[in-house]
Automatic annotation (TrEMBL):
Protein name: C-mannosyltransferase DPY19L1
Record-stated family: Belongs to the dpy-19 family.
Chief localization: membrane
Stored InterPro entries: Dpy-19/Dpy-19-like (IPR018732)
Biased composition (Basic residues): 50-60
Bilayer-crossing regions: 115-137, 251-272, 324-346, 352-373, 432-452, 505-526, 546-564
Ranges annotated as biased composition (Low complexity): 19-32, 40-49
GO cellular component, one term: nuclear inner membrane
Bilayer topology term: Multi-pass membrane protein
Gene Ontology molecular functions: mannosyltransferase activity
Keywords (A to Z) from UniProt: Glycosyltransferase, Membrane, Transferase, Transmembrane, Transmembrane helix
Pfam families xref list: Dpy19
Length: 770
């Protein structure tokens, strides 16, 4: 992709209606050196004009071309020659072609050098980020010195669940037998057989497993070692373990690919910031802001296997492509295909991607109804979204949540509005009340269509999302909602987060940029309501992508305030918006008062004060993973239970049991399925105040043989109302006031259960059949 150093059509203000561009030429200059009048849609870039004015490149060393470019009697004589024969005409055309080719070569050589410099800087930023997150991950866990079991335990909760499918594929006799195994999985939700590719967004694990098998096969064929193993003495009376390092170790290969992908993401951020701002300095601002606010931007260095680690880099690519599409006057097929592919790569790995894309198309629709982009362009963008949604639906074996999502409903409703609104409202498109009608039609139509499709297909898997939103606004509570909102990442944004943004100057800079964009947007909207001339329309079109980014910032801000985990989208977008401080479109007027680069470097210097402190804090994190109680539990399960023994317990622990022991489990951390939520409620009834006999009967119905009880869940309380007995008091008020069953089981599990293993954290209860 060509990344220009200046924005298109932004070098000089457009002409007013009726005004004509006049060309001035020195008496002795050749007309070939002058600039011919050109249409606004084909302006020459600033770099090309500067080069031509200075006579740079090869053309600057040539004399004036012969032929029709000379003035005076010679020119008249040439016209006579042209009138006399075709050979003279061919000679003149050849001269013109030769001059054009030489001039174009000089321009392309100069443009290519700028593009290559941009890409080299982008690669450097990517390598820097890869080194940074790799170092943080190693410092935090000493991952290179852990045993295979310890590495698997380090992937807690849903991370362990996802990694377990990668492990199944690479350990299977063949790649396709491994894929078939995860498509007919009998271990994850015993006794059900489920297609995990349909349920869990596991295509990243499938791709990585294929790469790992190819890598090890090729290296074995060449006779090259893929890993180095040694014995690690853990001290403190612990037995030594074998630790392997190198890409031949599955866990090391897995996280290495994730970190490479997120290094590539930083390269995309540099290109994105450069293209949006029209300056490589803007790309530098984006990258530095990301590093200075790294703890707020990503958590890939602490939780590599999470879905966002695979998905988010492709959202950056998709936003970059979308910005390019919004800027160009007409969309070509290649751009739409690239947008569609990036959408697919973003949606396939992550179930939450559809909600992000919902905010995106809502922002695009708002930009369209205000007149900043043409409705035909938006229709083409929506078509790309629909195709990518259909492809994901097929690749995920008919995952009905995709077709019954708010995202799918919104695509249909906006397309219908764009089709029917001009016919119904006719020439009233520029009136404010029309915008309100269209906005309300979108909101009402999306909610209604979503409800109807869910009703038709009988889908309730995403019902908990509406309940979470209700809990934010009206204090709604039930078991499933509290399981989410009691976790810190699903709570409201911390009050300290805006303070941290302010200390690095990220928030103040973005507020200034946002204010300038909104001011100009309001100015042009008011202008468009009173004028219908072509000039205003063309001028506003040049800034449509900036208005879109401002609206997208508002959407991300709302998401992040409601759910703290979604800072993942807000903070990087703030970094992208900060690049616009280098934009001549917004701050070109400052060049008359102060050197813009001086101002930008002064801002970066102030950012560095707090930003460098944040980086040092990250670099000073030193730790070593160790979880001896869970290691004892897993080793006991491997030795003392049958391969088909069925386990139940807390969701994070169940992921580790499935990953490291390959025993069947009845519940797991992927909480987005309605059936799984019902199973989990039955399993967690051990922490309620219900009678032991009732809990035992419910567990036997699920086919459970062993229950792993964690006393910490019985007594821990992250915040008021969030201990497991308190959550059950909301769900089961009839038994409120009784002693929690988990407390009774910790003292004496008889007669309903038999304690067969116990250590400081875990107690394994065997469930005897009645």
């Amino acid at each position: 992709m060509v990344v220009p150093s200046r924005g298109r059509n932004k070098e000089s203000p457009p002409l007013k209606p009726g005004q004509q561009q006049q060309q001035q030429q020195s008496p002795g200059a050749s007309p070939s050196r002058g600039r011919r009048p050109h249409s606004p849609g084909r302006q020459v870039s600033g770099g090309a004009r500067a080069m031509r004015k200075a006579g740079g490149g090869r053309r600057g060393a040539r004399g004036d071309p012969r032929g029709p470019y000379r003035e005076g009697p010679a020119a008249d004589g040439e016209r006579d020659v042209l009138g006399r024969g075709p050979l003279s005409l061919l000679r003149v055309c050849g001269d013109r072609l030769r001059v054009f080719v030489v001039d174009r070569k000089a321009f392309i050589t100069k443009a290519d050098s700028k593009i290559w410099l941009t890409f080299l800087l982008a690669v450097f930023a990517g390598v820097l980020h890869w080194c940074h997150i790799t170092t943080l991950f190693e410092n935090d866990r000493h991952f290179s010195h852990l045993s295979t079991l310890e590495r698997e335990m380090a992937f807690r909760t849903e991370m362990g669940l996802y990694y377990s499918y990668f492990k199944i594929i690479i350990e299977a006799p063949s790649f396709w037998s491994g894929v078939c195994a995860i498509m007919n999985d009998k271990l994850t939700e015993y006794p059900l057989v489920i297609n995990t590719l349909q349920r869990f967004n596991l295509y990243p694990e499938v791709v990585l497993a294929s790469w790992y098998r190819m890598y090890t096969t090729i290296m074995d064929f060449l006779g090259l070692p893929t890993k180095t193993c040694w014995t690690v003495n853990r001290g403190k009376g612990l037995s030594p373990v074998e630790s392997c390092e190198g890409l031949g170790d599955p866990a090391s290969f897995y996280v290495a690919v994730i970190f490479l992908l997120n290094g590539f993401m930083m390269s995309l951020f540099f290109i994105y910031g450069t293209y949006l701002s029209g300056s490589r300095l803007g790309g530098l601002v984006t990258v530095l802001c990301f590093f200075f606010n790294h703890g707020e931007c990503t958590r890939v260095m602490w939780t590599p296997p999470l879905r966002e680690s695979f998905s988010y880099p492709f959202l950056v690519m998709q936003m970059l492509l979308l910005t390019y599409i919004l800027r160009i006057p007409s969309i070509n097929t290649g751009s739409l295909i690239a947008l569609c592919v990036s959408n697919i790569f973003f949606m396939l790995p992550w179930q939450f991607a559809q909600f992000v894309l919902l905010t995106q198309i809502a922002s695009l629709f708002a930009v369209c109804i205000m007149g900043y982009i043409d409705s035909s362009k938006l229709q083409k963008i929506l078509s790309a979204h629909m195709v990518s949604l259909l492809v994901c639906f097929i690749l995920m074996f008919g995952n009905s949540m995709l077709l019954t999502s708010y995202y799918a409903a919104s695509l249909v409703v906006i397309s219908a509005i764009l089709e029917w609104s001009p016919k119904i409202l006719k020439k009233r498109k520029r009136e404010v009340y029309v915008w309100v009608i269209e906005g309300c039609a979108w909101l009402f139509g999306t909610v209604t269509l979503k409800y109807l499709t869910s009703l038709v297909f009988g889908i309730a898997d995403d019902a908990h999302i509406g309940n979470i939103l209700k809990s934010k606004f009206i204090g709604y509570k039930d078991f499933d909602t509290l399981m989410y909102t009691c976790a810190a990442e699903f709570d409201f944004m911390e009050k300290e987060t805006p303070v941290r943004y302010t200390k690095t100057l990220l928030l103040p800079v973005v507020l200034v940029v946002f204010g300038v964009i909104i001011k100009r947007a309001i100015k042009y909207i008011l202008w468009s309501l009173s004028h219908t001339g072509r000039y205003e329309k063309e001028e506003r079109f040049n800034h449509g992508e900036l208005v879109f980014h401002a609206l997208q910032l508002l959407a991300y801000s709302v998401l992040a305030i409601l759910i703290m985990r979604l800072k993942l989208f807000l903070t990087p977008h703030l970094c992208i918006m900060a690049s616009l401080v280098c934009s001549k479109q917004l701050f070109g007027w400052l060049s008359y008062k102060i050197q813009p680069k001086t101002l930008v470097f002064a801002i970066l210097a102030l950012m560095t004060i707090e930003g460098s402190a944040n980086l040092r804090t990250q670099w000073n994190i030193m730790g070593e993973f160790s979880n001896l109680p869970q290691e004892e539990l897993l080793e006991w399960i491997k030795v003392n239970t049958r391969q088909d023994a069925v386990f139940a317990g807390a969701m994070p622990t169940m992921a580790s049991v499935k990953l490291s022991t390959l025993r069947p489990i009845v519940n797991h951390p992927h909480y987005e399925d309605a059936g799984l939520r019902a199973r989990t409620k039955v399993v967690y009834s051990m922490y309620s105040r219900k009678p032991a006999s009732q809990v035992k009967r419910d567990l036997i119905k699920l086919g459970v043989n062993y229950y792993i009880l964690e006393e910490s869940l019985c007594v821990s309380r992250k915040k008021p109302g969030c201990s497991m007995p308190e959550i059950w008091d909301v769900e089961d008020p009839a038994n409120r006031g009784k002693i929690p069953l988990c407390t009774l089981m910790s003292k004496d599990s008889r007669p309903y259960f038999i304690t067969v293993f116990e250590n400081s954290n875990y107690r394994v209860l065997k469930i005897p059949k009645e």
